[in-house]
Every structure is written in C-alpha cells, then in structure tokens.
Design brief:
Layout lengths: L38 E3 L3 H8 L10 E9 L4 H9 L11 E9 L5 E7 L2 H13 L8 H7 E9 L7
Antiparallel strand pairs: 1-3, 2-4, 2-5, 3-4
Length: 162
C-alpha cells in the first residue's frame, strides 16, 4: 500500500471554512515526519456512513481499500465514469463504495473507498476481478485505460463514530 499509517476523514459540512494556523516558531520540534492533507468533495455524511457501515450498519472485521487516482491527460471524464460505474447486477460480494473528487492538496484527482465485510469477501472479490472480462464497465481494465497514476492501500478498521 501507500506510505501512510493512518487516514483520517472528517466531514466538514456543505460549506466549510478553513482557518490556517500561524507557522510554528523557528526551532520548534516537529510534531510529525510528514502529512498530506487533502480536501475532497463527495457524498453527504449520511451516504458516507451508510456505504462505510458506520453507526451500527457495519460488521466487525470489515476491510477497506482506499485508492487515489489521477487521469491520463484528457481522460478525466472517462476515469470518473469508470470509477463510478455500478457493480455488476450479478456481483456475489456486496461492498460499500465511495468516490470523492479532489479539491486541494494531493497530486491525484479521485479518492475511492471500498468496504468489504470481511477478509473472505475481499479475497473473493479480488478473485472475481482477476477473471472478469476486460470490457466490464468500471472494471480494472477500463479504469487502467484512463488512469495515469493510482495507489491502493488496505485498511483494517474504522474508529467508531460517536
């Protein structure tokens, strides 16, 4: 996966206001080695929590795959269409899926999050993807055709929302 240890996603509401704190004084100790804050737009918080199984709808042991994607030059609409394509009607594994669009911060354009209810579901889905037709809408071959860059990372838990 990627070279981060934690991903924190905070809903800021429909019209957030950001306040930039002043820089730390010269010589102050660093609080972290690095960070890569990014702002995205995406679904409502209600849709986000439903898709990610937060608030009682999820199962213990869920697995999450976070992906960042940058479109090949001139292919942004096609990549977005591929990333947002609905799952096949005959999909054996039901997942939660989100696509968010980059606003500021990172070098990518789309953030995807997929929730699997278990490692077994994750493995079964990966096996199905490996044997899927290259012409499957939203399938890996379709995404790859329109992508210049991507990174996926597997995460194994979400901190409970209170």
């Amino acid at each position: 996966g990627d070279d981060w240890d934690y991903a924190v996603i905070s809903h800021l509401g429909p019209k957030p206001t950001l306040s930039i704190p002043p820089p730390a004084p010269a010589g102050a100790p660093a609080n972290s080695a690095w960070h890569s804050d990014t702002f995205v737009t995406g679904p409502s918080w209600a849709d986000f929590t439903r898709e990610m199984g937060i608030g009682g709808t999820g199962k213990p042991g869920a697995v999450y795959v976070l992906g960042v994607h940058r479109a090949a030059p001139g292919h942004r609409p096609q990549l977005e269409k591929a990333l947002t394509a609905p799952a096949a009607a005959d999909a054996k594994i039901q997942t939660g899926n989100l696509v968010m669009q980059h606003m500021e911060g990172g070098e990518w354009q789309f953030l995807t999050i997929t929730r699997y209810d278990s490692w077994q579901d994750f493995g079964a889905d990966r096996a199905a993807v490996a044997t899927a037709s290259a012409s499957t809408p939203g399938g890996w071959a379709d995404i790859r055709q329109h992508s210049a860059f991507h990174r996926d990372t597997i995460a194994d838990r979400i901190h409970p929302v209170k």
